[in-house]
Write a structure and sequence with these properties.
382 residues, alpha+beta, 2-enoyl-CoA Hydratase, Chain A, domain 1, Pdz3 Domain, 2 domains, six-stranded mixed beta sheet, 10 helices, 27% strand
């Protein structure tokens, strides 16, 4: 999956060892403020594994460190790291603000997506219309040689993405190559809107709805895309590489294909709760959902709901298996700690956490072709 500048999960991920670093680019929307219904001031979200540490433990460590003139954030990190909470995290104030901005469907950057090319090189995969990169006539396929003078060949794409990002109105110098032309371009970073949902009309009449992440407004865009599809046309719902996001948006997206009813159940510190679809969704249009190992968290919630309720045939490979509830809490120094407090289950009662969802039809290669064939067999076009 290409690396995008849009990466809601803050860049400075401190724990989780190598696994967290490997998945840094796809953990973009793994959790989100206001992601599940709640009565209190803090909003739970999807994560993994129950935390051994409590909010009081973390807050106490931060306060004691601050009283000694030390970093409260670092002290809190140490407690969370020792807790065994795989996705537990502590973010400073600025990191968390950037995280929340991204979940609102925005990010600060130059408007391009990078990917690994042959020979370890990095190239531009896509350029966002209207962004600084597009205005500078940077194009998909251009080789990205340097960022602020630093060579990017052989660097992980996630690290390249981190170098592209920065503060509003700051500049970044890109070294580029297009065939025989080599040049540098100074771009000024700006706030851009993400394109979490894209719609493509396929040959044969079917519609592909690609949901890259569940940021604010994405659920409504899925519903609009379904409602606007030609009568009788099938839908290929592509959730590959979707690391999750706002659970409320995921429920809205699932509601596009359901007429009310259960989407998922979850617990917070033992208290059982449920998420329900809104009425009025399209329950007759054929649907095939594409998933892979990058389908995570809230995207697994949608997958499980459509699969368990017989609303979609799922095609691809087993999903990641990231399905538990995490609660963010503000610490004395303004940083935010996230600790896991529960888990969610599919409508049939299956736990996703650590297991993932096995698709109805396994297809590791040419999964999209197979999904279109299945959709055609359902009478939804291909």
């Amino acid at each position: 999956m290409p690396g995008s500048e849009f990466c809601p999960r803050p860049r400075r991920i401190r724990r989780g060892a190598a696994l967290t670093l490997v998945f840094a680019s796809v953990l973009a929307t793994a959790a989100a403020t206001n992601s599940l219904p709640h009565d209190g001031e803090n909003a739970p979200r999807l994560a993994a594994k129950t935390a051994a540490a409590t909010v009081d433990d973390v807050a106490r460590a931060a306060a004691e460190a601050m009283a000694d003139g030390k970093s409260g954030t670092e002290a809190a990190e140490a407690v969370v790291s020792r807790s065994g909470d795989r996705w537990g995290a502590v973010y400073d104030k600025s990191e968390y603000e950037a995280f929340e901005q991204a979940l609102d469907g925005q990010y600060t950057g130059v408007g391009l997506t990078a990917r690994r090319a042959a020979g370890g090189q990095v190239e531009v995969a896509e350029v966002q219309p209207g962004g600084p990169a597009a205005k500078a006539d940077i194009r998909a396929g251009d080789r990205l040689r340097t960022i602020n003078g630093l060579p990017v060949a052989e660097r992980p794409v996630t690290e390249v993405v981190a170098l592209l990002r920065g503060g509003e109105r700051t500049s970044v110098v890109l070294g580029l190559q297009r065939r025989g032309r080599v040049w540098t371009e100074r771009l000024v970073r700006t706030t851009l809107s993400t394109r979490a949902v894209t719609v493509q009309h396929l040959q044969g009449g079917a519609v592909m709805i690609k949901v890259a992440s569940f940021t604010k407004g994405s659920g409504a865009r899925v519903r609009e895309a379904v409602a606007g599809a030609p009568a009788g046309a099938g839908v290929l719902l592509d959730l590959r590489g979707n690391a999750g996001g706002l659970v409320a948006e995921a429920v809205t997206a699932a509601s596009a294909f359901l007429d009310g009813g259960l989407v998922a159940t979850y617990d917070i510190r033992g208290e059982q709760r449920a998420l329900y679809a809104s009425p009025g969704g399209d329950t007759t249009r054929p649907v095939v959902a594409l998933v892979d190992s990058g389908t995570m968290s809230a995207a697994e919630l949608v997958t499980g709901a459509l699969q368990d309720r017989g609303r979609a045939i799922t095609v691809g490979s087993r999903t990641f298996g990231k399905g538990s509830v995490q609660m963010p809490s503000r610490l004395p120094d303004g940083s935010v700690a996230e600790l896991t407090v529960g888990h969610y289950r599919t409508p049939a009662g299956h736990s996703v956490d650590g297991r993932g969802i096995t698709p109805d039809l396994t297809a590791n290669e040419r999964a999209e072709d197979r999904a279109q064939t299945v959709l055609g067999g359902l009478g939804g076009g291909s």
